[in-house]
Amino acid sequence: MDLLVPYYEHPAARPAEWDALVAAAPLLYGVVLNPASGAGRAPDPAFVTVADRLRAAGVCVLGYTDTDYGRRPHADVLTDLVRHRDWYGADGAFLDQVPTEPGAVEHYRRLGVAARAAGAATVVLNHGAHPDPAYAGLADLLVTFEGPWDTYRDLDLPVADHYCHLVYGAPASARLSTRVKCAVPGTGAHPWGTLPYPLECP
To answer: Tens of pLDDT along 54-66?
Structure first.
């Protein structure tokens, strides 16, 4: 199983859940680290510790960076990428809010190059919907669906090895069609504060 887990909870508030993530290392494609809707303004010691533990367990740590659908300046995105590397040892980049239309491809090509130069061995673009094919060569993984199970279960989405589906509000019986995936029970404004079913804590 290849789980890409965006878990947006503070380690001090949910230590058991972070322990479960570390223990599940063999199941994980990677974990998205998101201390403050990005790297934040200063290192957070609790996130430094969990990032170290994840890497020691062989898990790819993906630093969360918002790109605001191409509107966020390149320099600001790069600052986040470098902070994730320097503060948390992130060896991957999770670029969020990526558009689907082809007009932004060159912008994201430059961001992908910058992410690699900042030390990201793995680059993930989160479109949340199926993007133009021109994005395929820009990253290791494209998130081509992010949304609720009630929508996902009725769709017949294209599938490829470099596609990922992130589904919330999902039942324990949910089956996702991509190799890399994550289905969580959480709903509402903060669904990624819950772990995927294989890792649920009591």
So the answer is: 999 999 999 999 9
